[in-house]
Amino acid sequence: WLTGPDDAQATDVHYRSLTGEGNFNWRFVFPFEYLAAEEKIVISKKESMFSWDESITKVPPRLGLQVWDADAFSKDDFLGSITLDLNKFPRGAKTAKQCNLGMLKTDGSVPTMNLFKQKRTKGWWPMYAKDENDELILQGKVEAELILMSTEEAEKSPAGLGREEPSALEKPTRPDSSFMWFLNPIKSIRYIIWHNYKWTILKIFFILFLALFLSLFFYSLPGYTIKKMMGA
Known about the structure:
Radius of gyration: 28 Å
Shape: elongated
Order of helices and strands: EEEEEEEHEEHH
Mean pLDDT: 86
Strand order of the largest sheet: 1-2-3
Distance between the termini: 85 Å
Helix content: 10-25%
Largest sheet: 3 strands, antiparallel
């Protein structure tokens, strides 16, 4: 959301992703009125259906992003979030590997940007939550592109919500791990076990191979030694 939870928008759901990766290619559109002199968004709305006049509220232009884990039989689980003040927020990382909690530092060591001046940016931002000690925990990473347009520019280049017309977006290429696990048990084992514990499994096989080799070596060593002593 931009002006508050009341104007929240959501993507579709990437079901059954066993790798933890979600692909959406989803567009959000937030029309708003901005006061450049005060660097705030103007929100006009009626307090109730019986009000004649609209009340005006001015709030900072803060874009809130959240990531949730969709559950079929219980409430969705909150994973992490980030709030970007569009007047000054950390510049997105170029790659997911470079995206980390260090981007959230406010000591001046992290490059920042103003969307109202740059108009457009793309990158990776960390999604975080707080533990019981109020420490930040990295919960994920999101790649997003932010584009700011004036009313005239938006009218010349209309865009639909989500992946709808006009200027429809393509459906995302989602990994083949998006399947029903009970219909594909072999794939499930591959993605759950092999994808997450590949190097551990390889190390175990290497240790077992080395142990077998040493056992055979020491088992055959006495017989070989006796043959050498007998001159055979």
